[in-house]
C-alpha cells in the first residue's frame, strides 16, 4: 500500500493543498477519490497514473471531470511513498514544461531535506 504525502516547502506551505482548495468542491472530491484509488490499488490503472518521459522520474496522476482535466505531478520514494509536488488544470495535449520543472525542483528540495 502506498502513502501519499503533500510536498511542503521551507516556509511550511503545501502547494498541492492550495491547488485542491482552489478547485470547485465536486472537482476536488473527484481528485481526492483518484488519490485514494491510487493509494489502495497495488497496480493503479494507466488511465490515472503515468510516468512522464524525459523527466527526473516525475509521474502524473490524472483526473477528468466532464471537460476538465486535472494533473497532479509527483515522484516516488522507495516505491511506497508518493510525494505530490504540484497540480494544474490541463488545457493542452502536452504537460507544460514549466510544471515539470516545478516538480523536479521540488523533488530535489524534498530529497535534500528528507533523504
Structural commentary:
Helices cover 37% and strands 30% of the residues. It has 115 residues and is of the alpha+beta class. The chain has a five-stranded mixed β-sheet. The protein is globular, with a radius of gyration of 13 Å. The chain starts with a strand and ends with a helix.
Features:
single chain; 115 residues; alpha+beta; YaeB-like fold; five-stranded mixed β-sheet; 5 strands; 37% helix
Main beta sheet strand tally, sense and closure: 5 strands, mixed
Average pLDDT rating: 92
Contiguous low-pLDDT stretches (5 residues minimum) are none
Structural class of the helix and strand makeup? alpha+beta
Count structural domains. Answer: 1
Summarize the entry for a quick read:
The protein has 115 residues and is α+β, with helices and mostly antiparallel strands.
What is this structure's SSE topology?
Blueprint (H helix, E strand, L loop, with lengths): L2 E4 L8 H8 L2 H16 L8 E3 L7 E7 L2 E10 L3 E10 L6 H18 L1
Parallel strand pairs: 1-5
Antiparallel strand pairs: 2-3, 3-4, 4-5
